[in-house]
Amino acid sequence: MRRGRVSMLEAALLLVGCCHLFVRADHNTSSPPEVAQNNGTLYAACKMRPSSSLAEGLPKVYGRVSFKQDFPEGKLQIRFTLNGFPSDDQTQHRAIHIHQYGHLHQGCGSTGGHYNPHGVDHPLHPGDFGNFLPKQGKIQMMITSNATLFGGWSILGRAVVVHAGKDDLGQGSDAGSLLHGNAGPRLSCCVIGIAPPGIWNQ
Predict the structure, then answer these.
(1) Per residue in 5-29, pLDDT tens?
(2) Which of 39, 149, 172, 185 has the lowest CB atom count within 10 Å?
(3) List of long-range contacts for 73-78, beta carbons under 8 Å, 24+ apart
(4) Quick one: pLDDT at residue 29?
C-alpha cells in the first residue's frame, strides 16, 4: 500500500514537471505551421477601416498594415499603406499604436488601451509606433519594431489603431501622456491575423 502511494505521488510530480516544462518551452519557442511553410518567416496583415463610431468631420482612413518576421528572433518589419487623410493638410502628424483587444464590436473604442504586456509607461509599449506625417493624404512607410508575432507576447489577434492627433511620446504633463500619449480620437482600426506571403509585396 505504501509503495502504491509513493508511485502515485511520483507520477503526479512527473506530470506537473512535464507540464511546467511544456508551457515554458511553448511560451519561448512555439511557432505557427505557416513559419515552416514559408521558409522560417511569418506574415500577418490587417485591413484598416474607419471606426464605426467615428465622429463627424474626422477623416475616414482605409488601407492595410502588413507584418513580416523571421522565426524565432528576427526583427519585426511593418509596412503601412493608408489613405483617406486630408490631402490639403501637410502638417498634422498621426499616431499609430497596437491596442490590447482585437474586438471591434463598438468601433475602435472596443480595442481597449495600449497593448502593454510589460506594465511600463508609454512610449515603451511594444506597439508604440510613433507619429507619421501623411503626404498627399497617404501614409506609405515601412518601419521595424520591438513587437513580435511569436510566443506569449505575440500581437496576433490584437488591433492596430490610427489616431487623429500626434503622440506626445510621454512628454506631456498629465497622466494620459504615460498611458497613450494624448494622441486623440481613434480614426480607424483593424485586427492582426496571419496572412499569406504575397500580401507583403502587394
Answers:
(1) 445 545 444 444 433 333 333 344 5
(2) 39
(3) 74/41, 75/144, 75/145, 76/144, 76/145, 76/146, 76/147, 76/148, 76/149, 77/142, 77/143, 77/144, 77/145, 78/129, 78/142, 78/143, 78/144, 78/145
(4) 56
Query: Taking a C-beta distance cutoff of 8 angstroms, is the pair 159, 192 a contact?
Result: yes
Q: Which three cell numbers stand for residue 57?
A: 468631420
Residues serving a catalytic function are: 97, 99, 114, 118, 125, 128, 163, 186
Give the residue carrying C-alpha cell 495600449: 114
Give me 98's grid cell. 497596437
**How many Cβ atoms are within 10 Å of 78's Cβ, its own excluded?**
22
Closest by CA position to 169, among listed 161, 180, 158: 180
C-alpha cell at 112: 481597449
| Residue 83 three-state SS | strand
Residue 46's φ and ψ, nearest 5 degrees, are: -150, 145
Name 51's Cβ contacts closer than 8 Å, sequence gap at least 6.
107, 108, 109, 186, 187, 188, 189
Which residues in the chain show pLDDT less than 70? 1-29
